Amino acid sequence: MTGAAAKRGGEVGPASKAKRDGEAKRTARARRGEAGAAKRGGKATRAASGRVESVAAKRGGKATRAAGGRVESVAAKRGGKAASEATRVAAKYPFPFFGAGLASYFEWGSLYVWFEEPPPRAARAELVRAIPEPFRRAAEWGSSVLYAGSGDQFINLHICMAYAALGDPRSIDPDDDDGSFGFGVGQPFPNPRQSRAFEADLRAWLLDLHERHPIAFVARREDGEAGGTQLDAWHRWSLGRFADVVLPRWQAHHRKPPHRLADWALRVALDLALASPIADQVPAAAKAWCDRAG
Q1: Which residues pair with 189 in a beta bridge?
Q2: Cβ distance 269 to 242 under 8 Å?
């Protein structure tokens, strides 16, 4: 080898070529190894990352489902409570009873039952026989309405007689008013046990009647001369149904009532609404009609 050749390219010939080829092969293998390691490392990294993401997604999905389940569970629970409360109220107050409570009577006593559909005529005699005796004396039918009442000015006497087993009539203070407590009308007066028993029988009768012939509403006026009625929760609940139950019937019947009992039943319900916190729900036309009817 000349000095120029050695200087330009180093060793030449078969030996040097083999040496160079060996080095080239080793270099290629090393590079392939590095590439394979890098590829395997990338796959491992991606696999590990995928597993982490999968686990995170799975946990997130579980957490989301759990949170959604809790929300749905709370909503279902609340909905269930609301439905249970509605069912309880519907069972306790199956129809509006305007004037419900412990009523006091001075001379007259009565109430109006407005049915969803008029009971068949063939069933009416039996239905009247079921009315508690003090209100059975003047029962009358008209359109979709049943009137039940004393029929005279001695409702208190009828209550005392019907519930005589519950004790003597209530004594009257002779110093009250003019000394005769209403000029003697309706005396003797029932004691508290007799009044409560009559009220309980009225309610039991109405509930049984409703089971056989659905009732739209009941209306009983307050007797101011007797001190009125101790209006109760049923009456207060009924006021919330006034606009849905009474007003549509008034609108349908006030121009040409099908029967005077329908007219009177509507007037009693309107009077009770006008004397209550929902007075502003009574249209001016209905109030004017009620005033004219009086």
Answers
A1: 170
A2: yes
Contact status, residue 109 vs residue 225, Cβ threshold 8 Å: no
Whether the pLDDT of residue 32 is over 70: the answer is no
From 176, 175, 171, select the one nearest 187 (Cα to Cα): 171
Beta-sheet strand order (sheet of 97-98): 97-98, 215-219, 110-115, 145-149, 140-142
**Distance from C-alpha of 89 to C-alpha of 78, rounded to nearest angstrom:** 16
Supply 242's token pair.
């006034």
Q: Phi and psi at residue 145, in whole multiples of 5°? A: -115, 140
Contact between 162 and 134 under an 8 Å Cβ cutoff? The reply is yes
Residue 253 confidence class, pLDDT cut points 50, 70, 90: confident
Place of tokens 């509403």: 217
Please, what's the largest Cα pairwise distance for the chain?
159
Mean pLDDT of 40-66: 53
Q: pLDDT tens digits for 200-210? A: 999 999 999 99
Q: CB atoms < 10 A from the CB of 240, how many?
A: 13
| Residue 144 exposure: Cα atoms within 13 Å on the Cβ side | 16
Looking at the DSSP bridge assignments, the partners of residue 141 are: 146
- From the CA atom positions of the chain, what is the Rg in Å? 46
Residue recorded with tokens 């502003």: 280
Assigned token pair, 108: 């007259």
Beta-sheet strands, E only, within 133-255 = 140-142, 145-149, 215-219, 229-231
Instruction: Name the pairing type of β-strands 110-115 and 145-149.
Output: antiparallel
pLDDT band at 7 (very low <50, low <70, confident <90, very high): very low
| Six token digits for residue 38 | 């890098």
Please provide the DSSP assignment of 83-144 as one string.
HHHHHHHHHH-SS-EET-EEE--SS--EEEEEESSPPPHHHHHHHHHTS-GGGTTT-EEETT
Tens digit of each residue's pLDDT (9 = 90 or more) over 95-154:
999 999 999 998 889 999 999 999 999 999 999 999 999 999 999 999 899 999 999 989
